[in-house]
User: Fold Adenylate kinase from Phytoactinopolyspora halotolerans.
Amino acid sequence: MTRLLIMGPPGAGKGTQAELVAKHFGVPAISTGDIFRANVSEQTPLGLEAKRYMDAGDYVPDEITNNMVRDRLAEADARQGFLLDGYPRTLAQVEFLDSVLAAQQASLEHVIELVVDEDEIVARLLKRAAEEGRTDDTEEVIRNRMHVYQEQTAPLTALYAERGLLIRVDGMGQVDDVAIRVENAIAAAG
Ligand code: B4P
Assistant:
């Protein structure tokens, strides 16, 4: 059963690659960012709460995020495997995911880390800002998102490396080329 995580700084291509790689393995791509954005646009109580944090480039509190992921992972399609995009992002989320999977007697297979230069990240996010106008893609908020990532999320890759799960993949270049790199790296890791 395929249970994967995809990690990387904002703008590394997580959401982009998650869709392609999840399709390749026939599992649902579950993006916490997308679920939050859907709730924001539907103006649900969860969305109204999450928006305050997202607009500033801060993480939504763990308790809210964890409960949302637990509910999504309990759905039938995710029981057959999944690719989680943008979760976990904090140590508390790692521990929570461990407990959810342990309760299902399930375990992660691989953790993909997309590696992209900082200049390229900023260029991609500013391009998206111009094209899509996402409220968290202003230069000031992008800078805060990158800072929060370095502080809270980057250290988690070492933890997954210690567990023997981490696969680092070059995220530079064309989208399709990166997807092939990810799929080949997963195949090589067995
Ligand atoms: P996310 O939605 O995860 O936002 P992101 O880090 O920017 O990644 P995204 O998937 O959108 O962008 P990608 O790198 O694919 O999170 C948004 C916010 O939600 C967070 O700041 C936080 O507030 C909240 N949140 C989400 N998860 C949370 C959690 N677990 N805990 C707490 N809070 C949470 O792509 C970026 C751009 O690059 C795109 O425009 C894409 O088209 C482009 N691109 C991708 N690949 C490219 C390539 N190879 N070449 C050129 N451009 C490329």
About this structure: The mean pLDDT is 95. The pocket of BIS(adenosine)-5'-tetraphosphate is lined by residues 10-16, 32-33, 36, 53-54, 57, 59-60, 65, 86-87, 89, 93, 124, 128, 136, 145, 174-175, 178 (CB under 6 Å). The chain has nine helices and five strands.
